[in-house]
Q: What sequence folds into this?
């Protein structure tokens, strides 16, 4: 079986870049609920961090994605956001630790659009595999980080005193170092390929067209996809924030919890390289249906199966189920954009509004400008992705 990741240097570079940043994020994410409790917080505060993460994703989708649309610099900004979230998490204060996930969410919201734009503009026949591979790098990197997190804190740094640093902070220093490497690599490569930090023309000031929305809701696949995003992410938001604490209350050690999360997320990440190929062959809807069935059956057992090996097996099963969803639902959006391009011409609107021009040149600072013009407006990939992801994020945060 030919794997695109090993044939395409550009895809391999982006896979490695996202993987490196995700390892650091994974290290911190698994231990964050325990750190919040250690600083005097409660399970409610742990849930609040997930809400802030959702808010960050919304801002990343609606604001950062507009500024960095179709730009390689988007990956640099993602790495910078993730690095910043880890830096402020080092501070042993409940407020800073809590808001760290807001910055992580900003980066992830932009990363969703960056990955889909990259796949859409660089691949014609292998979009599903490219999307699955790059989303897989997020989850596989996080799996590696979460796999080492408990091991580092309990076995290596548990008895270590390094000046005033706690074991959690020492683990974070490792995370920050990995994230910094990702920031530097992304900046060096981007600097070679671009002369400006970014340059965006014709950013439309926020506006909304009800006729476009009406056309979308007449299209049954879009409505079904909207329901899938809402219910799938709502279920994910219910059980994930406090899951490490739940497993700990069952008598599992941090090392065992780390192994469990590593197994689940590794299956989630690596399997997407292959489930993306499956989506290219059979389409999106069957994989999404299988994903929901597998994940639903597996998650039910999380709080019922107490031996940690049994929970590990469930995580692996759910990870494989989840690996079917990400490439399938994202490729479904790309296919919808093609449908609107070719089939629903009445959704194309001629209208006039103001646009904002922004440029940041090295050594010249900011340059701003505003102009008005008339243009054609229709449902686009970015607007549909933003709308669907917004519903999913709100469901997760709720």
A:
């Amino acid at each position: 079986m030919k794997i695109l990741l090993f044939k395409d240097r550009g895809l391999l570079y982006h896979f490695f870049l996202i993987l490196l940043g995700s390892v650091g994020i994974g290290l911190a994410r698994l231990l964050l609920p325990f750190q919040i409790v250690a600083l005097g917080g409660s399970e409610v505060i742990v849930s609040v961090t997930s809400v802030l993460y959702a808010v960050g994703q919304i801002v990343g989708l609606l604001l950062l994605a507009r500024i960095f649309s179709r730009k390689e610099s988007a990956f640099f900004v993602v790495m910078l956001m993730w690095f910043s979230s880890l830096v402020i998490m080092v501070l042993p204060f409940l407020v800073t630790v809590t808001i760290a996930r807001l910055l992580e969410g900003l980066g992830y919201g932009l990363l969703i659009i960056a990955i889909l734009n990259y796949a859409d503009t660089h691949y014609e026949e292998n979009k599903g595999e490219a999307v699955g591979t790059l989303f897989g790098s997020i989850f596989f990197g996080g799996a590696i980080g979460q796999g080492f997190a408990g091991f580092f804190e309990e076995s290596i740094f548990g008895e270590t005193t390094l000046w005033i640093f706690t074991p959690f902070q020492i683990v974070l220093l490792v995370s920050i170092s990995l994230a910094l490497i990702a920031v530097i690599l992304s900046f060096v490569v981007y600097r070679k390929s671009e002369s400006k930090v970014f340059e965006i023309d014709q950013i439309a000031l926020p506006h909304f067209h009800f006729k476009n929305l009406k056309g979308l809701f007449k299209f049954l696949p879009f409505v079904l996809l909207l329901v899938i995003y809402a219910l799938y992410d709502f279920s994910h938001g219910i059980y994930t924030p406090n899951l490490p604490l739940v497993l700990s209350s069952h008598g599992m050690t941090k090392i065992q919890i780390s192994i469990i999360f590593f197994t689940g997320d590794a299956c989630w990440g690596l399997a997407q390289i292959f489930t993306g190929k499956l989506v290219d062959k059979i389409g999106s809807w069957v994989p999404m249906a299988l994903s929901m069935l597998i994940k639903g059956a597996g998650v039910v057992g999380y709080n019922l199966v107490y031996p940690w090996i049994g929970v590990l097996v469930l995580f692996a099963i759910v990870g494989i189920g989840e690996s079917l969803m990400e490439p399938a639902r994202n490729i479904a959006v790309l296919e919808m954009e093609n449908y609107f391009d070719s089939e629903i011409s009445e959704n194309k609107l001629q209208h006039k509004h103001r646009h904002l021009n922004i440029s940041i040149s090295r050594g010249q600072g900011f340059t701003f400008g505003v102009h008005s013009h008339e243009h054609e407006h229709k449902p686009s990939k970015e607007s549909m992705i933003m709308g669907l992801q917004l519903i999913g994020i709100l469901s997760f945060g709720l």
